[in-house]
Amino acid sequence: MTYEQKKNYAYCLCLHLCVIRHFTGGNAIISQGGIFVGYFNTTLGTYTAIIINSIQFIFIVIGLVYIQKIIGKRPLFLFSITTLSILNIAVAIAMIFENVGAM
What we know:
Elements: H1 3-24, H2 26-38, H3 42-46, H4 48-71, H5 73-102
Helix pairs in contact: 2-4, 4-5
């Protein structure tokens, strides 16, 4: 592959990852997580985005360096998408019940 082909392949991969992250709710967790946590603890709600991004960064490094070599890319990707989807559903249910309690 030439450098241009590798660059185009990397752009397509990044675009697909951004779309998957958007549709699985990763962006909503980061942007709305602070508001949700802020109801319970205002100080922690201020730093929620930083905490979530730090945890993501740590697990990305661990995933890329260690786990990927053990189980491979595809199982790691399928596990992460499944886990993120389940956690997003749990957050949505928690927000529904939080709104019901406020009524």
